[in-house]
Design a protein that fits this description.
The protein is built from seven helices and seven strands. With 201 residues, it is α+β, with helices and mostly antiparallel strands. The radius of gyration is 21 Å and the shape is elongated. Bound molecules: zinc ion (ZN).
Length: 201
């Protein structure tokens, strides 16, 4: 069986491994750090998670996250209208950051994961551009910051709850579920397996 060379992320030890079966974990013989983890049913789970995230995308960014009532004046805002409000307030840099890290990057990740896994599942790995798409996934992987935005929302809820009547809307639930889908991609996606499949082409 064909052997491949792997490096331990912790201690740089090099080890030759054969293909693992689903659920197997290869540990470093020197520091016992996991070198390769062959995830179970990775393609189907990634397709399910990315499809759920894609379905939640528009409700998450367009539905109001929360409503605020101050002196009988009610106001509600969605993620997208928040970006628009920042832009109109001439906070261009902040508006661009929120758009890039909370809207653009997560949707690119979900789309890339969905297209790649659907392609591999139906044995269409010869589709031109798979390698480029997966490289884009790698590039944007560390740039999505939904968790930071969620913490910002929670802090604002705590700060504002004594000043105004706050009611949480369906958009917040959709946004939380959308964020969970994007984070879960890290757990379900088997990058090593995908590289192997793309290399086999
Ligand atoms: Zn090691």
């Amino acid at each position: 069986m064909k052997q491949k060379l792997f490096a331990c992320n912790e201690c740089d030890y090099l080890i030759e491994l054969e293909s693992l079966t689903e659920g197997q974990v290869a540990l470093c013989p020197r520091c016992h750090h996991p070198i390769v983890i062959k995830k179970i049913n990775s393609l189907n789970r990634t397709i399910a998670v990315s499809a759920s995230g894609l379905m939640l995308f528009f409700p998450a960014i367009l539905y109001p996250l929360m409503s605020m009532n101050i002196l009988s004046l009610e106001n509600s805002a969605s993620l997208f209208s928040g970006v628009q409000a920042l832009w109109q307030s001439e906070l261009y840099f902040v508006a661009t950051l929120v758009f890039m890290f909370c809207i653009f990057t997560p949707i690119i990740k979900l789309l890339a994961a969905f297209i790649i896994c659907m392609g591999l599942k139906f044995h269409k790995q010869r589709i031109t551009g798979f390698k480029t798409l997966f490289l884009i996934y790698h590039k944007v992987d560390s740039w999505e910051m939904l968790e930071v935005f969620m913490i910002g929302i929670l802090v604002s809820i705590i700060k504002l709850k004594d000043l105004a009547d706050l009611s949480l809307n369906i958009g917040l639930l959709c946004f939380a579920a959308f964020m969970l889908c994007v984070i879960t991609l890290k757990v379900t996606m088997d990058k090593s397996m995908i590289w192997d499949e793309i290399d086999n082409d």
